[in-house]
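Hey team,

Filing this mostly as a record. A colleague (T.K.) asked me to run one chain through the structure pipeline before their review meeting, and I want the input and output archived in the tracker in case anyone asks later how it was produced. No errors, nothing strange. Just documentation.

Input sequence:
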Amino acid sequence: MIRSWYFLAVLLGLSLLMHGTSRYFFPFLETSSVYWAVFNEKKSNGIQTKHSKGSILVLGDSQIISGITPQMVANWNEIETNEIVYLPRPSEQPEGMLSLYDANLKSFSNLKKVYVNLSPISISKNSVVDSHKQLYTSFGSMESVQLLNPALRKFYFPNLSDLCWKVVITSFPFFSLNPNTSSLTNKFILGEDIEPILLDRKKEYESILKAFESSFSGSWVWKETDSNREISESEVFPKGSTEVFLTKREAAIETLKTLFQRWRDRGIEIVVLRIPFSPDMEADLQNTNGNVHLDQFLDEQKRIQKTVRGELQELKVLDIRRLGLNQKKYFADITHLNQKGRDAILRSNLKSLLDQTSSSP
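Output structure:
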């Protein structure tokens, strides 16, 4: 009996030690991981206290993190920035948005509008889905809605071992660091110089932390620390790569339908953001018809919106692709706008884009 209590005391001590010190390892994480880690520490624990009066919710993935700031959204709606609840995360999926919304439902009592960025990545079977699950398991907040909602439970915990592993990582957060540190450890063992990698990761961590602690509320130009990142003119996008988006993920579409219906039922206005990819990737999407499933979904939602709400309200699509940001200088990489791209959006007349509700470019 004494041994059992001793064992439990040791486990409790280890858990407390890991919870108290794991943040000191954040500077050694890769980009998406460190963003999720800081998000969970700075935002998830403060949504209920900091955003109870928020009137506009912003959800999405790293496209919106890099391209759209809370200040932009506030300016579009002529309100104060502190009324914007800015909650996008890298590799976000519809299930993640639903989980965030449901877990903090009581804090969203004053919502009048939701901006959500969607792309073919959001509703297709691709590696980003696995990345999202890995990021959630390692750094996401475990909420009761993920167990009580059948769709979320099937997505995050398809079997008992996944649930058990999440409980272990939640209790002993050092285990969440392994996927990020193992590659560095292997390089160190092989005698490779890892100091440049560590310095770059530390710069990114400090830059992300600064974004969360400022009025940008987590909005951060992707991987930009010292200078403006741009795609090289010589960089070639592999043709046909966007064919992966032709494989539709039905569970993601059903989750989005659930989210949209909940917002309609509460009379919340829905604005879908279509943020551009790099010019080469957009051209490939046109060649492969990679936007087809998302376009069909949005067209369907517009019809449902009109049927349910009549003339009172309809789904809006803010298609930023129409701004013509078709030069590589506006992009940090194939999926993220850089500071020049963000500034171009800031200078544009987006109200005219809202009148063009077609989901296709």
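Quick notes for T.K.: The mean pLDDT is 87. The first helix runs from residue 2 to 21.
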